[in-house]
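User: Second chain of the day. Same drill as before.
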Amino acid sequence: MPVITIAGNDGISIEKKREMVKKVSQTVAEAYDLPIEAITVLVQAYQKESIGVAGELLSDRE
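Assistant: Same format as last time:
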């Protein structure tokens, strides 16, 4: 059973997360020739204060 992890900042709505999980699940299920029920997607959402880019916190770059 494939497990897909998507990690990013907590900047998208629950509706967009639903859409993303559905599309990713469908794509991976097709690639593996599996039913969509066999796919697990984990969405890890981090606050901008917990993400570092180029030596700076993402919250400090804005």
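The beta strands are 3-9, 40-46, 52-53, 56-57.

User: Great, on to the next one.
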